[in-house]
Amino acid sequence: AQKITQTQPGMFVQEKEAVTLDCTYDTSDQSYGLFWYKQPSSGEMIFLIYQGSYDEQNATEGRYSLNFQKARKSANLVISASQLGDSAMYFCAMREEWQNFVFGPGTRLSVLP
Amino acid sequence: DAEITQSPRHKITETGRQVTLACHQTWNHNNMFWYRQDLGHGLRLIHYSYGVQDTNKGEVSDGYSVSRSNTEDLPLTLESAASSQTSVYFCASSEYSGRTDNEQFFGPGTRLTVL
Fold first, then answer.
1. With an 8 Å Cβ cutoff, are A105 and B42 in contact?
2. Mean per-residue pLDDT of chain A
3. What does residue A13 show for φ and ψ, rounded to 5 degrees?
4. d(Cα B35, Cα B33) in Å, to the nearest integer?
């Protein structure tokens, strides 16, 4: 069964607008972590943000925030004030305790000028 | 600064040839991983290692092997390259698995084409 689902293969957003990239996950563990990575066209994988399953507050890192809804098992990435440089593939990933990372299929975000 | 390097960055080979992709990390991490990235599949785990002399199969390990003789290196070998192994390969490392907040650090990737 797919542990990480990203239902949006591609998304478009206007520059300076906010955008939400969806991620749902499947786990029966109580302790796990959720990650978002960015992959620009140059190919490298860049860590953006982390949310722990026990964290009560949604994680934020600059223009990135994670909308964590534990009961719904969703961990959506919100990018505020989109910039042209945000155009990239975005991967959601989960790590259960003592387990390896599992990645979703990714969402390609295109920011329009 | 600590880093992960991969070589070569690009490789073209022929069906049936043996190919080895190198991965070297200076993070001093025990855990190292090899992934392949294909459109629509995200990153799929090929092999991983939790320490020297430890290797384990991931979800797409057929046709690949790894060895871990030291902390820094985890080379990936394609025993007999097939066109289905044309992909982008990423090496990654992380601290031990007991904490869920240990992020993975990635190398720059190797683009392999099998003709």
1. yes
2. 94
3. -145, 145
4. 7
Cβ atoms B103, A36 nearer than 8 A: no
Which range (A62-71, B24-33, B91-100) has the least confidence?
B91-100
Q: How far is the C-alpha of B39 from the C-alpha of B94, rounded, in Å? A: 25
Is the Cβ–Cβ distance between A33 and B100 less than 8 Å?
A: yes
Read off the pLDDT of residues A52-64 as tens digits, 9 standing for 90 and up.
Answer: 999 989 999 999 9
Residue type, A64: Y
Name which of B43, B92, B100 is nearest A33 (Cβ-Cβ).
B100
What pLDDT does residue B97 have?
65
Interchain pair B40, A105: CB under 8 A: yes
pLDDT(B63) > 90:
yes
Contact A97 B90 (CB under 8 A): no
| Closest alpha carbon within chain A to B108 | A44
Closest by Cα among A61, A27, A76, A89 to B43: A89
Q: Does the beta-carbon distance from A91 to B42 stay under 8 Å?
A: yes
> Which chain A residue has its CA at the smallest distance from B91's CA?
A45
Distance from CA of B22 to the nearest CA of A (A): 17
